[in-house]
Amino acid sequence: MANSKYEYVKGFEVEDEVMLPNLIVIRVNGCGFQNFVFKKLTKFYQRRSSKILSLIVSFFTSLFVAKWKEFFPHKELRYPPTFRGKVIPCASVEVLQHYLAWRQHECHMANQYNTCLWKLVEHGISEVEAHERLKGTNKQEKNELLFQQFGINYKSFPQIFRQGSCVLKKKAENIVKYNENGTPIKRMRTKTWIVHSENIAGKSFWNEHQNLLKDLGGGIRENISKIESEYIRSFVFESKLLPSTWIVVRVDGCHFHRFSDAHKFEKPNDMQALELMNTCAVAVLLELEDVIFAYGHSDEYSFLLKKDSLFYQRKLSQVVSIIVSLFTSSYMMKWKTFFPQKQLMYPPSFDGRAVCYPSTRILNDYLAWRQVDCHINNQYNTCFWLLVKSGKSKTEAQLALKGTLAQEKSELLAQQFGVEYNTLPPIFRHGSSVFWEVVLENENGASSEIVPRRVVVKHCDIIQSSFWKANPSILA
Fold first, then answer.
1. Which one of 170-179, 219-228, 279-288 scores highest in mean pLDDT?
2. Are 163 and 103 in contact (CB under 8 A)?
3. What one-character DSSP code corresponds to residue 406?
C-alpha cells in the first residue's frame, strides 16, 4: 500500500508498554468489579497497555450482552451497558497478593453495607435515612444490626456475595476419545473453574493452585495480616491525556478479517456491516456529549473529543475503555437490526487507543490520513475481489496488483470490469463522517444558531477545507 503525506501524524502515538517484571492486572468496573491477572511473561499484544485494556473491556462487554438472555430470559436489555477499566501493574507477586486481599476486603465491606442499607429500605426507611443510620458503623455493628433487627446471620449469606468469585484455569483429565474396545482415552486438558474462597490472598489458596504460582513466576511467603489500601493505591496510577489538546480515540475491530469471513460479509464492502458500524458511532455521539465528531471506514472508527474536554478528568484508561465498551455493546445490540437472518457466531471485540493532537491543523491531517487510507484500501480491495471473482486465485490477484498506482488500478477497473471507480458509492470511497448538525435559521433577516438537533452521517471529502468551512461548529 502507498504511503501518504499525512502519515507523520503517527508520530504522536505514545508507546504504553507495561515493562517486565511487572505483572499485569486489568480491572473492569461496571456492576461490581472484575480483575483479570495475566501470566508474568505474557506477550499478549506485546504488553501494550491500551490494547490489552480495551480488548478485555470490549470482550467482557460483548459477552455480557450475549449472555444476558441466558440469565435474564424475561428481562429485556433496555440500553447498551458500558464498562470502564484500568491497568494495574504489580511489581511483584507480593504486591499482587496485597492487591487481591484489598479487592476481596472491599467486596466484603461493600456487600455488608449494601445488605444493611437495602434491608432498612425494605422496612420503610428512606435511602437517605438508611445511609445516615449506617454512617460511622463498623463491621461488628452492622452484623449486630442484621441479626437483631432482621434475624439475619451475615455469615449464612452465599459465599459469592460475601467473598466474590475466582475464575481460574487448571489442568484436569478429560476423555478425548474411546479405543476399539470402548476404553476411554484420557488426556490432561486445561479447564476453567469458578471457586469462592474466604481468602484469595492466603497461602492455603495458592498452595492449592500451584500452577498459578508457576505462571506468576513466584510464591506466596506469608499471609497478609493487615489490609494496607494506601500501599496498594501507590501502584494504581492513572495516565492523564494532555490538557488543551484534541483527543482522538480510535477503535479497531479485532481479527475482523476472520469475523467477516465467519459471517460471510460481502466482499470488498458489505453495506449492512458498514451501516451497523455507523449506527454504533451515532450511539456514541448521542450518549457522550464530549464526543463531537467521528470518522470511520471498514472496521475502524475515530472519535474526536472536545479540546477542553474533562471527560473522566481526561484519564486515559477511563476515556478509552468507556468509548470502546459503548461501541461494542451497541454493535452487539444492533446486530439483528442489520442482519436479521444471520446468527452471531461469536462475540466480536474491538481495541482502542487515545492520541492527543496539539493543533487543529495536525488534527485535520490525522483525519485526512484516515480518509486517504480508506481510499487506498478500498481501491485495492475493489480490484482484488473483482479479480478473484473473475477466476484468479488470491495469490494471482495480489501479484497482478503489486506495485500498481492509483491511476493504473482505476484503468484496470474500467477496462477489465467496466467499473468507473469514482461512481462507486461514496460510503465506500470516502468513509463515514458522524457529527451533530447545527441548524441556522433566519429570523427578521438575522441568523441565529440553534442547539444541534440531530446526529447526521455523511459520506464526503473531509480532506478539503470546504467541509470544515461548511461545518464550523464542529471544531468551534
1. 279-288
2. no
3. H
**How many Cα neighbours within 13 Å face the side chain of 414?**
10
Taking the C-alpha atoms of residue 379 and residue 381, their distance in angstroms, rounded to an integer, is: 6
- Residues 61 and 55 sit within 8 Å (Cβ to Cβ): no
Residues 6+ apart with CB under 8 A from 306: 290, 292
Query: b vs e for 22-39, b when ≥16 Cβ sit within 10 Å of the residue's Cβ?
Result: bbbbbbbebeeebbbbbe
Torsions phi, psi of 445, nearest 5? 80, -5
- Positive or negative: CA dihedral 87, 89, 94, 95: negative
Strands (E), 44-183: 84-90, 166-178
The C-alpha cell that represents 228 in the structure block: 494496607
> How far apart are alpha carbons 321 and 313 in whole angstroms?
14
- Between CA 227 and CA 229 the distance in angstroms is 6
How many whole angstroms separate alpha carbon 401 and alpha carbon 308? Answer: 45
pLDDT, tens digit, for every residue of 155-182?
Answer: 999 999 999 999 998 877 788 788 888 8
Q: What's the burial of 98, exposed, middle or buried (CB within 10 Å: 0-12/13-18/19+)?
A: buried
Rounded Cα distance between 66 and 376, Å, is 35
Compute the average pLDDT of residues 185-211. Answer: 86
All cell numbers assigned to 303: 472519535
Residue 246: how many CA atoms within 13 Å on its side-chain side? 24
Q: Per-residue b/e over 347-376, b at no fewer than 16 CB within 10 Å?
A: bbbbbbbbbbbeeeebbbbbbbbbbbbbbb
Average pLDDT over residues 10-37: 91
Spatial distance between the Cα atoms of 417 and 394, rounded to a whole number of angstroms: 17
pLDDT tens-digit readout, 336-371? 999 999 999 999 999 999 999 999 999 999 999 999
Q: Is residue 41 classed as helix, strand or coil in its secondary structure? A: coil
Kindly tell me the burial class for residue 229, based on how many C-beta atoms sit within 10 Å of its own C-beta (0-12, 13-18, 19 or more): middle
DSSP 8-state symbol, 56: H
Q: Helices in 6-86 by DSSP H: which ranges?
A: 49-71
* DSSP-based three-state secondary structure for 360: helix
Cβ contacts of 300 within 8 Å, gap of 6 or more: 250, 251, 252, 253, 370
Prior bond to 89 cis, omega within 30?
no
